[in-house]
Amino acid sequence: MRNPYAPGAGQRPPELAGRDRELQQFEVVLERVARGRPERSMVLTGLRGVGKTVLLNTFKSMAIQRLWGTGKIEARPEQSIRRPVAAALHMAIRELAPRHRAPERIEEFLGVLKAFAMRDPAAAKGTSHWSPAIDVPAGRGRADSGDLEIDLTELFVDAASVATDLGVGIALFIDEMQDIQAPDVSALCAACHELSQSGGPLIVVGAGLPHLPGVLSASKSYSERLFRYARIDRLDRDAADLALIAPAEREEVEFTPDALDALYEAADGYPYFVQAYGKVAWDLAPRSPITADDVRVAAPEAEEELAVGFFGSRYERATPAERDYMHAMASVGDEPVPTADVAERLGRKPSSLSPARDSLIKKGLIYSAERGLIAFTVPHFGRFLRAQPV
């Protein structure tokens, strides 16, 4: 009942260890925007399970503490960002509205926001009658052209203007950013570019898989200079130990040095795995201190839970052809592997495997590390596959 460890998707661990640099970077962003200084939007990248969503949520909390307006969306491959962005900015403006001295100014922006939301292509075709719950008439002539790049730019500029009136900022947080459709990525980059030139106090903070910078760069060449990129990786030994020790000390429980050695070897520094192994070791240890023997007893149960929940759930989403492709990847190695080597293992031409590869990329199971190389988005996935029957 007192177990402090919390393996979960986007669930904040009891000790957010090893992320001081990223937190300081975002603190600088908030302070610069508050002082009216130009500042780039921010993008977090990394494998699954390294804590990108946790950091994104922590950034959101930091912005709220500074009385910013905030909104968050999770991108989906099949969905335009028009509706989610409208809903997120609506939430951000609702946070700011009570402090604004000119209610008519808020109503004017809400009219623009409603017009923006109602220009959704699906709604225009009659396939959807969705309308945002904004109790003002839709405006006309602003953010309602139907061209997302024009509309999003105008919407961001107007939202930033409202924030300027209050001397605060607005932050839009986007998780799974690599799943935004290509035309929408282009529109988002263009809108952020306009904001960076005008110095408007609105920033976009995204999180996504390692190939996200390539997705943004393919959309707009200037995106490399548009965002501040932060690569989120596994924890070093000190940070991984702190993530285990600090919560345990609050419950007056200790780990032996050998236990910490065994846990680091098992988890390999990945935050999700640190929590998963720590949780099971705690449950199975009969007393404090938790020892290396306790970890050895706990490891099979932790690995079984990971095999079912973390790895297995993703494996089950793949078709037989996609599973064959992933097994071939795993047999080549754990680092980014050449697509030509995967094709050779399968005895196929690389071009004939493109549908399986592209589908796996869309499902977020693999990513293109660079031209001709592919890798798993989930750490230790190759090891999991090698233990599965082909």
Automatic annotation (TrEMBL):
Pfam family, one: AAA_16
Domain Cytochrome c: start-end pairs: 164-330
Signal sequence range: none
Matches recorded under Gene3D superfamilies: P-loop containing nucleotide triphosphate hydrolases (3.40.50.300)
Alphabetic keyword roster: Heme, Iron, Metal-binding
Gene Ontology terms, MF aspect: electron transfer activity; heme binding; metal ion binding
SUPFAM superfamilies: P-loop containing nucleoside triphosphate hydrolases (SSF52540)
InterPro entries, per the entry: AAA_16 (IPR041664), Cyt_c-like_dom (IPR009056), P-loop_NTPase (IPR027417)
PANTHER family: ATPASE DOMAIN-CONTAINING PROTEIN, DNA-BINDING PROTEIN-RELATED
Protein name: Cytochrome c domain-containing protein
